[in-house]
Every structure is written in C-alpha cells, then in structure tokens.
Design a protein that fits this description.
Two copies of one chain form a homodimer.
Chain A: E1 2-7, E2 17-21, H1 22-27, E3 35-40, E4 43-52, H2 60-66, E5 72-75, H3 77-83, E6 90-96, H4 101-109, H5 116-127, H6 133-145, H7 150-162, E7 175-179, H8 189-198, E8 203-207, H9 217-221, H10 231-241, E9 243-247, H11 256-264, H12 272-285, E10 290-297, H13 306-322, E11 326-333, E12 341-342, H14 344-355, H15 363-379, H16 388-397, H17 400-411, E13 428-432, E14 437-442, H18 444-454, E15 463-466, E16 473-474, E17 479-484, H19 488-500, E18 504-506
Parallel strand pairs in A: 1-5, 2-4, 7-10, 8-9, 10-11
Antiparallel strand pairs in A: 1-6, 2-5, 3-4, 3-6, 12-15, 13-17, 14-16, 14-18, 15-17
Helix pairs in contact in A: 4-5, 4-6, 5-7, 6-11, 7-12, 8-15, 8-17, 15-16, 18-19
C-alpha cells in the first residue's frame, strides 16, 4: 500500500514508529504493535505500528488539517532519518512478520528455559531496537517470575557483551569493582581506582549516573573533570595513567542493559538474573579479569537481609567462574550513608579531603576503600594473602593515591583543585539533635530523597551534609546534618520533608 | 515550570502523553513514564512523560523548526482535547506522583495476593487511562505467572463490571452464552439467540469482531444488519424482540478488558484468570443470570487438551457460583471448523440456509446450536431436565427460530434477505482431493489463515468454503474447498499458501 508521509516532530529515542489511521491499518490487517516494512526508493526500515482512530470531538476539517488522515502515514524521527523523507513524499508499506525473539519471550513466560541462541536473539533485537517497550517488559517480567538459571544468566551475559562494544587492553590482568547500589555517599571507586592504579594495576572503571539516588559516581567525578569519552579515548587515558573514572553510558558497552533498565523503572523491578548479567556484562565488556563485588546490606539499603545477600554472593561467584573471571564478593554494612556529603559537589569534596588525608575527610569512606582495594590486590596475587590491606593503606597514606587521582582527572581534562575551592550551595539549613543519646540509624533512602528534593544530582551544589553517623553520641542541640540548596523553593520543601522524617534516629 | 505548547497530530487513543526535551525533563527530575500535571487556566490533566533527546544527525535549525525544543511541551491529542490548547499557548507543568495501583501491580509481581480494593484500583486506573502500556503489561505478566486465586478473579470481575456501563433489564431471568474462541465458522450465537428468544427468554447478546480469526460473530451479523448501538438502543431492541446480536465494543461494558487484551496481543498471552474475568464480566455487565460456556477442545483449537478444558470448566462453575450466576459449561469438539463457510458473507449465508432448514445448511452448526440452546432452556428451568433439546429442535425446525432471527435483524435496522441474494466474491479457486480416503483433519488455524489472506474479515465477501468435514469419504478429485476473493493478489497468495499446507488431511 502507498501512503503519503507526514513527518512528526517526535521520536522514541529508540524503536522506529509509524502511525496509521485505523482504516488503513484494517486494510493492511494490522493491529497495534504489529510490524511494517517502509520502503522509500532504495531505502527501507522496519517500524512498529501505532494506530489512531477518529478523534472524539474533532471536526472533519480538524482531522484533515491537524491529524494523520487516511492515506497518510506519520513517521517518528527515527524513521525520517533512515528513509530521508519529507512530508508529502509517498512511501510503500508492507506488513512484516514479528521477530522470532518474541516467541522466545513467550517461551520464557511459559516457564521454559531459553538456550544460547534464543537469549542472544532477544538481546540482539533489544539492542537493534526491534522490540517494543511492551515486548521488553514481558521479557523482564518473565525473568523476574521464572528466575533465570545460572546457564541462562551466563548466556545472557555473553549476549549482552557480544551485542556491544568491547574494550581491548594489552594487559594480562585488568581489575574492576562494582557496588550494588542503594547506599548514599558510597564513593569508594574514586578512592579505590587511584590506589590500584598507583599499585601498577590497570583499572578501566566505568560508572553510571544516578537514576534515583542523589549522586552516582559519574555525577560526582563530573564535578572535577569531563566524564564523557569514546571507547578509544578511554583506552588512551587508561594507557597513560593506568586507570580512569568515566561515564559508561556513551560507549555502547552492553547497550541492551540500558533499555532493560528503562522498562524496569516504572515498577522498580530488578530481577536477580538481570542484575547479575547486567553488572558482569559491563565488567566483561571492559575486559576485566579480576573483579570485586560489594554487596551492602542493611536497613535502608537495596538489599536488606543477609540471606538474600549470601545467595547473591554465591551467584556472583558462580557466574564469575563460568565467565572465566576471578571474583571476590564482600558483604558490607549498608545500613547508613558511607561518606558525609550527599550530592555531587559535597561528595567530591569529601573524596578530595579524604584522599589528601585531611582531618575533614571521611574515615568510613577511607577504611572501606582501603579494605576493598586490599582485597583486589590479593585477588590479583600482587601481594600474598593478608598483605593487601597494608599495601593499600601505605599507598593511600603516603599520598600516592591522591597523586594518581590527580593524574587521572588531569588525563580526563580536569585540573587539580583544592577541596575548599569547590563551589557549594550558599544557602543551607541546619538540623540539630532533638535530644541527647546515641545515633541509632541514619536512613539511606530518606537522605537520598532529601538531597534530591534539594536539587541533587542535577544541581551539583545541592545536597545534604552529615555531621555524624550511627554510633555517635550526641547532646541535645548538637549538629546532625545540613541541607544545601540555592533554590529557595526546593530548600523549603526539603526542610519540610526532613522535619517530618529526618532519617535520623536517636536512642 | 512553564512551557510553550506544541500540539502534535497524533494520539494514543488511550493514555494522555506529553513530550518533553531531555533537559527540561532533567530540570523537573523526570524519567520516562513518570507523571506530570499539566495546567492551563482552570483546566488540568495528568499525563505520562515521553522524553526526547537531541536527534542524531539533525542540525540546530532542524531542531528549532521541526522538533520539540527546550522550553516546549508536545501534547498528544488526548491532552489537547482536555486542555483546549493551541500551539504557542503556555501551560504549567508539575511533577506528579505515580498512581498507587502501580505498587499493587508490583505486589502481584512479587507473588502476593491482591485484595478487593487493590484490584479495583488497578482496573479503575486502566479504565481511566492512568496506567501506561508498560505498566498494564506488568499486570498481565504478573497474573500469568502468579496465577490469580478464585477470590482474586471474583474481585477482578466485579471491578471490571463496576468500572463500566451496566445493562439493566426488568426480567428476572436473562440468558447469555459464550464460546472460547479459536474454532472457525462457529456461528452458534446466530442460531441460539433466536431459538431462546422464540422460547420467550431474554437474550441481550453482545459479540466481538474478529481479532485474529477470519470472522467474529459481530463481523458476520454485520453482513445482514447494523451492529453498532448504544446501551439504551440495545435495551430497546431487546425489549421489542427479546434478543439482539450486537457488537459489544462500543458500549463500554467492562471497558478495561479491551486495554488488557491490547497488551496481551504482542506476545499472544491469555492468562486464565484474565480470561475468566473478561468473559464473565461481559456477561455480568448485560445482567445475565443464566450463562452457558462452550469450551471447544481439539487439535487446531485454542484449547488442545482435555485436562486443561476440565480445569477451566471447574473454574467457570466456581466463578459463576461466586458471582451469583447459574452456569453450565460444555466441552465440545473443537478439532475442525463447525459450519461450511469461513468469512463474514459465507458464514452469514450458512446461518440463513441453516435457519431456513435448507438442505444447503450446515448440519454440524444446527446440531451444535440446538444442543446448546437446549442446555440453556433446562438451566433456566423453562423445561424439565432432558427436555431442552426437544423444545429447541421444535422451535428450530418449525421455522420459529428463523422468524425470530428476521425480527432481530429487522429491529437492528436490517432487512430479510434470501441467502442466495448475499454477495460473494466472484473469483474462486477449487481444491480437490489428491487421493481417495477419509478426511481425517480439517485445521482451524490453517483455514482461518487462508481465509484471512483471501481478505476476510475486512473484505466481507472473501473466505473459504468447505465441501466436507472430518469423516467424509472422498474419491480422488472430489471437491474439498474453494477459496473466494476478488482481489487477484490476495487470491494468488492464498492459493500458494493452501498448496503448501491446505489444512486438510486424508487418511
């Protein structure tokens, strides 16, 4: 069937969409979400169909002028760019079969195991934008409810790696680390990477931006230097200084993962199989051979019970073995924020103070990072068992880690800056202890929320600064935390929320 | 935040959508699928957010002219019609919480039972277009994988009924029937409704159009008379002639069902709980007190094994009991098409021949319909047990059923027409037996497919006509079936397909 193009000013950023009027769709025997092949000269593209009917309340004239009419096809940006059409051009439309991967998704929904080829087909079609959001949603739901076996997770990981870019480094040993999210101010990567690189290891670290927390590692590093690089630029930086702290989002490392995360968001799902594959695929994509996984556990963290953490630990170990990687997994205290600052600039300042061994640095952040770096040093056999933590501490306290950190941010196009030179929001509001006692809880979720309402991470200078952690003995009126924000409305709203539930408990 | 409206020429027919540029979304701390409140003067509406980024390959000028820019908001038709905006108007945007029903969907995904209020909230939000396709998809997947309990199915059915229109009839007894789909030429409703109405019962029958078969009851009735009515028009017809055969799609009876079916389509899912609730909600909505459910079973049907059919039967009985309805369930032979014609006009002609007791009528269709009508007559206690089939046969063979049928189509605005006056496609192609033997299989799925390729149901006159059924003894060269289509390309393609797999087996 031939239809006249109407270019639409919107895109999905993803799947190619063509909009048809109901009558034309009927003629082609199409239902919503069916596929069509669009042909314009020698160019062609497969699109998913959106079908629109008569608009209630619209006149015939309205229809003709404003909306997609019979005989017309509305093209989203993605289709326009492949076909090179102008409004008014005539293109041909044919109905097209659905991708085979949909039948594999159905199979998984029905509780059957998927083989290597089937999982690859699904991930390839997600990567190539051949599956709609609804179809990907069924895949995620199926994996949530019919848990993936270890074999399936291994295939899934390989499929994610093989449908994206891969970093190839000459080194025999390449180290990496990952922390399961949910804990505020947990910026260990910014300390561990320089320690390991200073010890002579290769650490091509990629990080993500915050999705629902007050700052991701990428957001925090960005306060100090650029973080968006191509894969070859990243390779160059790692070659030069031994490590990097870049944003993983622009390099197409296991790119299917981003789309899967996108459909998980509306109901905040995170099936274990996908979590494992997602993390390990990113590590495999940068060529990591030795990896440390940190699972923070506790009230207010993503993982709240120890049994769940232990199961996850076993699965990481098993998946690492199957992928031919050396894995260490630690379960850490996730029941409160690690550093003091929460929000990009506040966290960046913490990192700098800590790396410079300043008394204003965060002891919790320092000790956790040294411990984790030590484990990686032992995992790579750089030092004998039991000696890792000593080497890590020596590198840290001697200033070599700070020196390496400066090299890394300089290699990424930043400059050395004194922590007190970093700009913070000028307006703040102090919360003090309402009674004397011991701090018994500082809630990650609530602190993240307050910092986000204050403006973090988009407003780098906004956030929360903690004066004490769990176990601190306070007198009435002692400082607990401040909220920072230069946006008066946001500050006011954050204060209101914090007055209701501050996230602090004093026992 | 204030943004300038750009009215877009498309709609979803469903959820209200607003399109923002990525930078504006960031400023509002929004992710795709988050909700916003749009305010224009005194009017307001909650919309789901679509976020678009910079378009690869587009120039700055392109962006400004063609696409949604920073400071702009693109409104789909649904939002335009509620707010009454013109392009260029300025509206206010606020971020809005997600509906609580999303947390109930999550709960179901996690395997927990939902209570009455939670299921109502989900169905209400589906009906009111507050849930996106992805969110509804999670609900369907959750119900598929964590099967709904009988209590949940009952709540779900009530919720579907209570969020739509309801037909209120004065009669104490209102009868209805439903057949689980998948069997071709299964037009029993068009015979059963007149038999029952002629017996003095009230039969407010609604039917659906075909989705994936060659004709639904609504498509077939439409060959003879109008089928689209409002609820009060339907009530008037039933009042006048005791029954009707109308399309259920336009009357908002259990309307959430249509949206659920829409997200089931991409992966052809049909969770048992939803199937039960969907069918029984439609029956409850028209006020049915006595209902017969037909479950056809066999190779090529929707339900292929007897055990599954028996389970379903039990569940229908149980659900009927809980809804306070009298239910009979029969399991019938679904291993081949029932009538001879497949396609709207061919099926309508079969119905007329059969109702007129013509020798060209379908014996299978007649006998199945008389049996089913008999069961309903007994269920209502209109006749004693064992006497239903006799009364049904008497009404049928005396011509009273045909007379009532003419009354019904006349009441719906049609006219009596002789079966041989119905227009059929002029071009046809005959398939004959390639060997002597007994017909051992006529495949529903393949016959539906051939008839659809020939043009059915959108081309009413196209389809397939069967000259024999299972058990017929044929000589080589005997007529098996003809394909009818006036579209040469479609006819050619249907013949090609049928030559590969005709759906007939001769043993």
């Amino acid at each position: 069937m031939k239809l006249k193009v109407r270019n639409l000013p919107i895109g999905t950023g993803d799947v190619v969409v063509a909009v048809l009027r109901d009558k034309d769709a009927t003629r082609l025997d199409l239902l919503p979400a069916d596929r069509v092949l669009l042909k314009y000269g020698h160019k062609q593209v497969v699109a998913t169909v959106d079908i629109i009917g008569r608009v209630n309340g619209a006149t015939k004239k309205d229809h003709k002028k404003k909306f997609i009419c019979c005989g017309e096809v509305g093209l989203f940006l993605e289709a326009q760019y492949v076909l090179g059409t102008k409004s008014g051009d005539v293109i041909e439309i044919f109905s097209e079969k659905k991708p085979a991967s949909i039948s594999y998704i159905k199979k998984k929904l029905e509780g059957q195991r998927l083989n290597k080829g089937e999982l690859y087909a699904i991930i390839k079609d997600i990567t190539d934008r051949n599956l709609s959001e609804t179809e990907i949603t069924y895949f995620v739901a199926a994996c949530y409810l019919n848990e993936l076996s270890m074999t399936e997770i291994t295939y899934l990981t390989h499929a994610m790696v093989n449908t994206g870019n891969v970093l190839k480094l000459p080194q025999r040993i390449v180290v990496d680390k990952h922390c399961i999210g949910g804990v505020a101010a947990n910026r260990t990567s910014m300390l561990i990477v320089p320690i390991l690189a200073a010890a002579g290891l290769t650490v091509p670290k990629t990080s993500s931006r915050s999705i629902t927390s007050a700052a991701g590692t990428a957001d925090t590093v960005e306060v100090l230097c650029p973080i968006v690089f191509t894969l070859s630029e990243m390779k160059h930086i790692v070659h030069k200084v031994g490590g990097c702290l870049v944003w993983g989002g622009a390099m197409s490392l296991a790119p299917s993962d981003d789309k899967i995360i996108q459909v998980e968001h509306p109901v905040s799902l995170d099936p274990t199989g996908q979590l494992l594959a997602s993390i390990m695929a990113k590590k495999k994509s940068v060529g990591a051979t030795h990896v440390l996984i940190d699972i923070p556990v506790g009230r207010g963290a993503k993982i709240t019970d120890m049994k769940h953490a232990e199961t996850l630990k076993q699965k990481f170990n098993e998946l690492g073995r199957r992928l031919g990687m050396k894995i260490a997994v630690i379960i850490t205290d996730g029941s409160q924020p690690v550093g003091n600052g929460i929000g990009p600039s506040l966290e960046a300042r913490d990192v700098l103070w800590t790396l410079k061994n300043s008394s204003r640095g965060s002891i919790l952040l320092k000790e956790k990072s040294i411990k984790m770096a030590g484990i990686i040093l032992e995992l790579t056999k750089k030092v004998p068992k039991g000696k890792g933590i000593n080497l890590a501490r020596e590198i840290f306290e001697s200033g070599k880690a700070y020196e390496k950190f400066v090299q890394i941010i300089t290699a990424q196009g930043g400059k050395e800056i004194r922590p007190d030179q970093l700009r913070m929001a000028k307006k703040s509001y102090l919360f003090t202890a309402w009674k004397a006692g011991t701090v018994t809880h500082v809630d990650n979720g609530i602190m993240n929320k307050i910092a986000r309402i204050a403006g973090a991470p988009h407003d780098q200078e906004a956030g929360v600064y903690l004066f004490c952690h769990k176990g601190t003995i306070v007198r009435r009126g002692d400082k607990l935390f401040t909220i920072h924000s230069d946006n008066p409305e946001r500050l006011k709203y954050a204060i209101e929320i914090a007055k209701k539930t501050s996230g602090f408990e004093i026992g």
